[in-house]
């Protein structure tokens, strides 16, 4: 429908690429078997005058002392304003991002670095998080990119999804199994399609599972280790936990109750955790 008028389009094949909320995918039944993990509210604030800010770095802070169960992140400002820090806060209806931002910049242990900061621009959005679709086609419809993903495929992933989806449709119209070929590529290419993705919460949902004291201890186990320079919501947790668990006997010996908690969390699925 456009401007109050309805219209119909007939086609032999349909590609759904309407973003992570995917209203069309919902209408076509693609979401019926997906686990829904909540509606994330995001606030991005570009700020000048933030002390210790370095445009070459991305930083994250884990702990309830920073005001949220979701780690505040600081990244690089927009093109033309790399001197601005991009403060990214994730929230929920029960834990508003704006409230976390106020606490983080004015009352948290890091409040001093914002004492001379100035808000230049602000943006917000919301996104529904689902588990990824393992079979991204049904009949003559193929769902691609963020619409079928666990939140997002990133820019380069979206370009590849679009190119290979077009190729898949062309093959289908030639009587070949284009959708099946696309599905194999989809499952093999994106990390969130592996069962290991269900443990991503161990890296990005440290809170409230672990107390601030426990998080401090876990991060001391990474001291002196330089990790691969990756900022991925899938790879980074694996790198962090791979380092933390280099010597599990040390944790078992020094913090037996924490060791049992880690074992319990690692055996749970993402849906159970959330």
Q: What portion of residues belong to β-strands?
A: 15-25%
Evaluate the radius of gyration. Answer: 21 Å
Fraction of helical residues: 25-40%
Give the H and E element order: EHEEEEHEEEHHHHHHHHH
Tell me which CATH architecture of the largest domain applies here: 2-Layer Sandwich
**Total strand segments:** 8
> CATH topology of the largest domain, anyone?
Alpha-Beta Plaits
What strand line-up does the widest sheet have? 3-4-5-2-6
Low-confidence parts: none
Q: What best-fitting shape do the alpha-carbon axes yield?
A: globular
CATH class call of the largest domain: Alpha Beta
**Averaged pLDDT, please?**
90
Helix/strand class: alpha+beta
Distance between the termini: 36 Å
Separate helix tally? 11
- Describe the main β-sheet briefly: 5 strands, antiparallel
Q: What is the domain total for the residues? A: 3
């Amino acid at each position: 429908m456009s401007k109050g008028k309805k219209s119909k389009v007939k086609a032999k094949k349909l590609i759904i690429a309407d973003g992570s909320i995917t209203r069309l995918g919902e209408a076509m039944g693609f979401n019926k078997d997906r686990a829904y993990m909540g509606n994330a509210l995001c606030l991005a604030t570009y700020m000048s005058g933030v002390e210790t800010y370095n445009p070459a770095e991305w930083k994250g802070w884990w702990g309830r002392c920073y005001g949220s169960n979701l780690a505040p992140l600081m990244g690089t400002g927009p093109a033309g304003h790399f001197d601005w820090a991009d403060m990214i806060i994730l929230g929920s209806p029960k834990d508003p991002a704006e409230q976390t931002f106020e606490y983080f910049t004015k009352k948290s242990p890091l409040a001093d670095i914002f004492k001379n900061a100035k808000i230049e621009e602000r943006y917000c959005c919301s996104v529904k998080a689902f588990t990824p679709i393992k079979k991204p086609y049904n009949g003559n419809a193929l769902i691609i990119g963020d619409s079928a993903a666990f939140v997002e495929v990133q820019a380069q992933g979206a370009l590849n999804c679009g190119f290979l989806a077009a190729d898949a449709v062309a093959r289908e119209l030639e009587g070949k199994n284009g959708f099946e070929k696309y599905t194999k590529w989809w499952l093999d290419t994106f990390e969130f399609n592996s069962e290991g993705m269900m443990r991503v919460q161990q890296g990005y949902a440290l809170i409230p599972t672990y107390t601030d004291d426990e998080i401090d201890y876990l991060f001391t186990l990474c001291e002196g280790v330089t990790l691969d320079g990756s900022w991925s919501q899938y790879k980074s947790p694996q790198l962090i936990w791979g380092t933390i668990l280099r010597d599990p006997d040390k944790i078992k010996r020094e913090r037996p109750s924490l060791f049992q908690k880690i074992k319990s969390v690692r055996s749970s699925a993402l849906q159970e955790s959330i």
